[in-house]
Amino acid sequence: MDRRAFLKTSGAGLAGLAVTSCGGGGMGGGGVSLQPSLNTGVFTRPFFTPPEMVGTAGAAANKVFDLTMQTGTKTFTGQGVTNTMGINGNFLAPTLRVSQGDALNLNVTNQIGQETTLHWHGMRPPSDMDGGPHQPIAPNTTWNAAYTVNQRASTNWYHPHPHGTTASQVYAGLAGMMIVDDAETVGLGSLDLPKTYAVDDFPVIVQDRDMNADGTFAYSASQMEVIQGKKGLTMLVNGVIDPVLDVPAKEVRFRLLNGSNSRIYTFQFGGGITFKQIATEQGLLLAPISLTSITMSPGERAEIVVDFTALQGQAILFQDVSSGISLFKANVVASTIAATTTPATLTTTLVPLLRNQAVRTRPFVLSMGQGNVYINNKQMDINRIDETMVLNDIEILDIQNTSNMDHNFHIHGAFFQLLTRDGGAPRAYETGLKDTVYLPANSRVEAIVQYSQATVAGAPYMYHCHILEHEDAGMMGQFTVA
Ligand code: C2O
Ligand code: CU
Ligand code: CU
Questions:
Q1: What is the DSSP letter of 448?
Q2: How many CB atoms lie within 10 A of CB 314?
Q3: What top-level class would CATH report for the domain 355-481?
Q4: Among 14, 174, 317, 477, which is least packed by CB within 10 angstroms?
Q5: CA–centroid distance, residue 468 to ligand 1 (Å)
Q6: 64-106 residue pLDDT tens
């Protein structure tokens, strides 16, 4: 559909949202009036690429990262000042860039005035370095997470995970990307993929916010917002509303992250441009998959490559089909770097797990009732272990959403591959290694997993719905691996 038609649909999309947002959303927090979507379809603000942080050399060949979680302010629209949180900045965080085999030393200082944690979503640290609810960081103290990167090249992220208060802290701006490289993706003989950060390789962190007229975020965590999940009317990309980006007329890689609390997006490019997906959350696919759109629930990542070679001089919109909002504009300009050709084979080191290797099936039932959210009819209890996994076992996770609302499922310290969705094949774009999977209302997936990381005593791993309001409301459980 053309841009004008798309903007028209966009009006309808927003009207639909208002109806489902409990009372039309007249008032935000503090009685200030809630603004309608601030996305205008006109792109005037420069696209922001979070600075890359590669760490400094420490003792014993460590890579040291000093991260300060802090409060700040940001002016998103010029209309008012918003109180925010960020890491080494006012909103969001630097992109941490690490390689397989690196010994990381992450010093996390809490200056946000309340207890927090910092979780490395998609990374596979030992469970006592995971940054989940069992590793709280008190205000004005520093937590040191030390671990060796032991996983494939992948696009991960980091965000707070304190018991019961994750949603509001992420909403305030605490989230960043964490990119892992390996021998297949960088260095001598690596794949011919776009890989120059901020030139032909861009993070795209998509988030939604509700803003009040005075510029403050409208986040009340009311019962309604908790049950439905907080969905904002204004979309941001890397913390910017309506950004415009110059892209070179060559292949360009976008590392997509749904960093929203609750909103589910279906991304596409204006004009129905075909793109290639090259990676799911936990790394490269066996071969690129051609797509015209991709649906992503909170916490999911996907790496895609768009070929802009023949589009110099054109402006291409990146859009969310579900809300009808265009998220950023890409102006295709002359390229100053060498062309790349995404190869037909992306990895030779990925060996998919097979159903007949599994030794058991483990059910997870996501349900709702009387205004509560449950997994296996239980709510999170930080003093209870819900599941005990056996180290190195391969098993099938039978994950079922029996409610009429959307959820998803994320597991720490492990990764999985989908075997089925609703009894049939998984969607084309979710066939690789994953750690988070979307479960629309009344749906079911089977995923195969192997537990390769034993848990440390007193530090279980988590599984949970990544709709953060649901997570905070108890849609989470704990497991050990031994
Ligand atoms: Cu992204 Cu347990 O979280
Ligand atoms: Cu996680
Ligand atoms: Cu949920």
A1: E
A2: 13
A3: mainly beta
A4: 14
A5: 9
A6: 999 999 999 999 987 789 999 999 999 999 999 999 999 999 9
